[in-house]
Design a protein that fits this description.
- The longest helix is centred in the C-terminal third of the chain and has 17 residues, at 443-459.
- By secondary structure, the protein is an alpha+beta fold.
- A hairpin with a 6-residue loop joins β13 (281-291) and β14 (298-308).
- 29% of the residues lie in helices and 20% in strands.
- The radius of gyration is 23 Å and the shape is globular.
- It contains 17 helices and 18 strands.
- The two termini are 39 Å apart.
- The strands form four sheets. Strands 15-12-14-13-17-18-16 form a seven-stranded antiparallel beta sheet. It has a five-stranded antiparallel beta sheet with strand order 5-6-10-8-9.
- Keywords: Disulfide bond, FAD, Flavoprotein, Glycoprotein, Signal.
Length: 533
């Protein structure tokens, strides 16, 4: 349900730059000439400029947040949709030569639009044409090009086996390139950890245009790209995935409780139950204000959503021991295959064809702003604080805002916080995801809603992790701090960097210094090299 496009920053400074580079066509023309010189092999077929009739449709196809699909949003001088590695190498070389920024887009789900927006003159490398998924059932591995969506990955694995899977996110249109680069958590993380924990090799193009794999890049860079965030260390072309085993039958449920059904106490009790849950159980609560059957009255809904890697009888027995207060019964549960559960949790109707996982089209795109927090295992949120959340949800219309509480623990507790750049392991009870949505480009509405979510985030300060207050890089939030793209400093970057990466931030800086000392791959929240200190 983190497809926030059915579900990204009111940056005042965007306006200041939006017209500054349009007047000069020289960088654009020089870049195009360079591309043809570097690689004339069919590259003209994958180049889009504002004069092309299909430019807007190519640009907008993978924009998942209406906040960055306005007339004021800075647009790329050129979009390149490469068919092969040589096209990417040419785009990198020519961007460097002519002083253009590069933004790399695999699925377009960056919460702040950084995969397709820049305040400096820029080019988009859109990996939509590089999405081959090759599955080797015998060795339980898959090579996945970075432009493949999670839905495409799941579908191709299921074509070969119904008892192999990959532990990644819920939204089928999320691109594997960016998702895995940020860690990538999903419905099986309490059993298997993150997507990034199951990467065994990679193909990456660095700032010098070299094609590197794990052996040639070395373990430091291989560590950094598995959770250090996208568009920082190079262009990931493909991941080699280690697949995991799932049973032929899994069980899912969505159980709703309202305030009138003791939702506040149940949410509070859920926090104590997390430590008792079997690692085969994934548990998440969706919270929002909703209308009731009585006209003019609303309530708060708490929707308990779970995937259990096993049959319903074992699930019911486990829930009776760990969280009997929920009152889960067999009628609440549905048994299905794991691949069917990916369609179910993407909120498609029952019996929808698995082919829907191959559909990349964005559907209706709304505007939204989101933020994240983590709750310490030793400090669960008290009931009085939950009631404060309900009060704030009641300040907005029904179904405009939503919170998600996602249980951690299980395998996540067993993996060291330094094993990858993703540090949110043992000690974290659950993650909070806050989001607010609006359906138009009205600037006043945007300001009202972003102000609301910032106030809610401020209210939550006493109840979440501290020093640093942690956040998840895949749910990017520029409110945490931004780099100055013209002169990125370590001091600037550390403000937001320690919130995403804790003590892993300094190691990421040292890796960046080795592999991209000139800071060619950069954005408002990318790791800086030491030369930027």
């Amino acid at each position: 349900m983190n497809c926030l496009s059915s579900s990204k920053f009111p940056f005042l400074f965007l306006f200041l730059f939006s017209f500054s580079w349009v007047a000069s066509a020289d960088p654009h023309e020089d870049f195009l000439q360079c591309l043809h010189y570097q690689n004339s092999n069919a590259i003209s077929k994958v180049i889009y400029t504002p004069i092309n009739s299909s430019y807007s449709s190519v640009l907008q196809f993978s924009i998942r947040n209406g906040r960055f699909n306005t007339s004021a949003t800075p647009k790329p001088l050129v979009i390149v949709t490469p068919l092969n590695v040589a096209h990417i190498q040419a785009a990198i070389a020519c961007s460097q030569k002519h002083g253009l920024q590069i933004r790399v887009r695999s699925g377009g789900h960056d919460y702040e639009g950084l995969s397709y927006v820049s305040v400096l003159p820029f080019v988009i490398i859109d990996l939509i044409n590089m999405r081959t998924v090759t599955v080797d059932i015998g060795n339980k591995i898959a090579w996945v090009q970075a432009g493949a969506t999670l839905g495409e990955v799941y579908y191709r694995i299921a074509e070969k086996s119904r008892t192999l899977a990959f532990p990644a996110g819920v939204c089928p249109t999320v691109g594997s390139g960016g998702h895995i680069s940020g860690g990538g958590h999903g419905m099986m993380m309490r059993k298997y950890g993150l997507a990034a924990d199951h990467i065994i090799d990679v193909k990456l193009i660095d700032a010098e245009g070299r094609i590197l794999d794990r052996a040639s890049m070395g373990e430091d860079l291989f560590w950094a790209i598995r959770g250090g965030g996208g568009n920082t260390f190079g262009v990931v072309v493909a991941w080699k995935l280690e697949l995991v085993t799932v049973p032929p039958t899994v069980t899912v449920f969505n159980v709703t409780r309202t305030l009138e059904q003791n939702a506040t106490k149940l949410v509070h009790q859920w926090q104590s139950a997390i430590g008792k849950f079997d690692e085969d159980l994934f548990s998440r609560i969706f919270l929002w204000r909703a209308n009731t059957s009585q006209e003019g009255k609303t309530t708060i809904l708490a929707i308990y959503t779970s995937l259990f890697l096993g049959g319903v009888d074992r699930l019911l027995s486990m829930m009776q021991q760990s969280f009997p207060q929920l009152g889960l019964v067999k009628e609440d549960c549905i048994e299905m295959s794991w691949i069917e559960s990916t369609v179910y949790f993407a909120q498609f109707p029952r019996n929808t064809s698995l082919d829907v996982l191959l559909d990349r089209s964005p559907g209706s795109t709304v505007s939204f702003k989101a933020k994240t927090d983590y709750v310490n295992v030793k400090e669960p949120i008290p009931e009085i604080a939950l009631e404060g959340i309900w009060e704030r949800l009641n300040q907005l219309d029904a179904q405009v805002a939503q919170l998600q509480f996602t249980a951690y623990g299980g395998k996540m507790d067993e993996i060291s916080e330094t094993s990858t750049p993703f540090p949110h392991r043992a000690g974290n009870l659950f993650q909070i995801h806050y989001a607010v949505f609006w359906g138009d480009q009205d600037s006043e509405r945007s300001q009202i809603y972003t102000s609301w979510i910032r106030k809610l985030y401020s209210y939550m300060t006493p109840y979440v992790t501290k020093n640093p207050r942690q956040a998840y890089i895949n749910y990017r939030d520029l409110d945490l701090g931004m780099n100055n793209l013209g002169n990125t400093s370590y001091k600037q970057a550390r403000i937001w960097g320690t919130k995403y990466f804790k003590n892993n931030f300094d190691r990421l800086v040292h890796v960046k210094t080795k592999v991209d000392p000139a800071n060619f791959f950069r954005n408002e929240q990318s790791i800086p090299p030491l030369s930027s200190w």
